[in-house]
C-alpha cells in the first residue's frame, strides 16, 4: 500500500502541495456553500479535497496514495445515505456495489490491455480511484465521468504533440490527474441539478 505522507522507494514525496490543496479546496468550499444545500456542500468539499490531493500527487509522481483512493471510497460509501433518497443501508450497499463494479470494469481493461500489449497500461491506483467513482456517482453518471477524464487526457496528448513533444505508445500519462477532477465535476453538476 502507498500511504500519503510517505516517500516511496524511488524517492517520490506523496504529500500533497498544501498551497494547491488549501487554495483549490477553499475555492470549492466557497462555490459549494453558495450553490448547494449544506449536506451536499459538505460532501462536495470533502470529495474535492481528496480529488485535489489525488490529482496533484498523481500529476507529479504517477502514483495515487491509498489514503486518497481508499479514503475516497470510504467517504463515498458513508456519504451515500445523504445523497440518495432511499433507506440508508440500501444507499450504502448500492454505493458498495457500484464501487466494486466500476473497479472490476477498469481491472478488466487493465487485464485486456496487458494481454494485448504485453505491459501495464492502467495502474492499481487508477482501479482504486475507479471504485471511488462508483461509490460517489449514480450509475448513469459513471460513463460521463470517464468520458470527461479520457477526453481531457486525449486533449492533453494532442496539445503536447502540437507543441512538438514526442508522443509514442510508451508515453506515461497520470490518468488519476484527469479522473480526480472529472469525478468532482460530475458529482457537483449532479448535486447542482438535483
Explain how this protein is built:
- With 194 residues, the chain is mostly helical.
- It has one domain (18-193).
- It has seven helices and no strands.
- Helix 2 (38-61) packs antiparallel against helix 7 (176-193) and helix 5 runs parallel beside helix 7.
- The longest helix is centred in the middle third of the chain and has 30 residues, at 88-117.
Shape: globular
Mean pLDDT across residues = 92
Q: Low-confidence parts lasting 5 or more residues at pLDDT below 50? A: none
Topology pattern, helix = H, strand = E = HHHHHHH
Count the DSSP helices. 7
The secondary-structure class comes to mainly alpha
Gyration radius over CA: 17 Å
Taken together, the total number of domains comes to 1
Distance between the termini: 36 Å
The fraction of residues in strands falls at: under 5%
- What is the share of helical residues? over 70%
Main sheet?
none
Number of strands: 0
Brief rundown of the structure:
This protein has seven helices and no strands.
Question: Key terms for this structure?
Answer:
194 residues; mainly alpha; single chain
Compile the SSE list and pairings.
Layout: H1 18-35, H2 38-61, H3 66-83, H4 88-117, H5 124-136, H6 142-162, H7 176-193
